[in-house]
Amino acid sequence: MPTYYKLIRDKIPEIIEASGKAFSTRILNQEEYSIELKRKLLEEAKEYQETSEDEYALEELADILELVHAAAIIHNSDINDLEKIRKAKCKKRGGFGDRIFLEKVED
């Protein structure tokens, strides 16, 4: 039986059960959940980085977005507050649409 030891989406146990396979899960405490959310976010970001096809890239971005929603909640916030912060930073410092790549800054 393969072992995974990773955070999964809420309906995955139902999907595994419907397939007739045996499995085990547990509910994480708040500290463990925070750690595993961050780990999962890095995993999904890596998968996004490694894909070259638009369809798969969008799937990975959707996974990242789902994790961002969950992470905002553990920081006593929500996606709306996060969007306000994003807009304020964009107004103050800009976004990334101009594709500017910093190479050097003189001391």
How would you explain this protein's 3D organization?
Helix 2 packs antiparallel against helix 3 (54-74). 60% of the residues lie in helices and 0% in strands. The chain has 107 residues and is mostly helical. The protein has one domain. The radius of gyration is 18 Å and the shape is extended. The protein is built from four helices and no strands. It starts with 11 loop residues before the first helix and ends in a 14-residue tail after the last helix.
| Helix percentage | 55-70%
Sheet-strand content, in percent, reads: under 5%
- Unreliably modeled segments: none
Number of strands: 0
Shape: extended
Note the main attributes of this structure.
single chain, mainly alpha, 0% strand
Indicate the topology.
Elements: H1 12-18, H2 30-50, H3 54-74, H4 79-93
Helix pairs in contact: 2-3
In short:
The protein has helices at 12-18, 30-50, 54-74, 79-93. The chain is an all-alpha fold and 107 residues long.
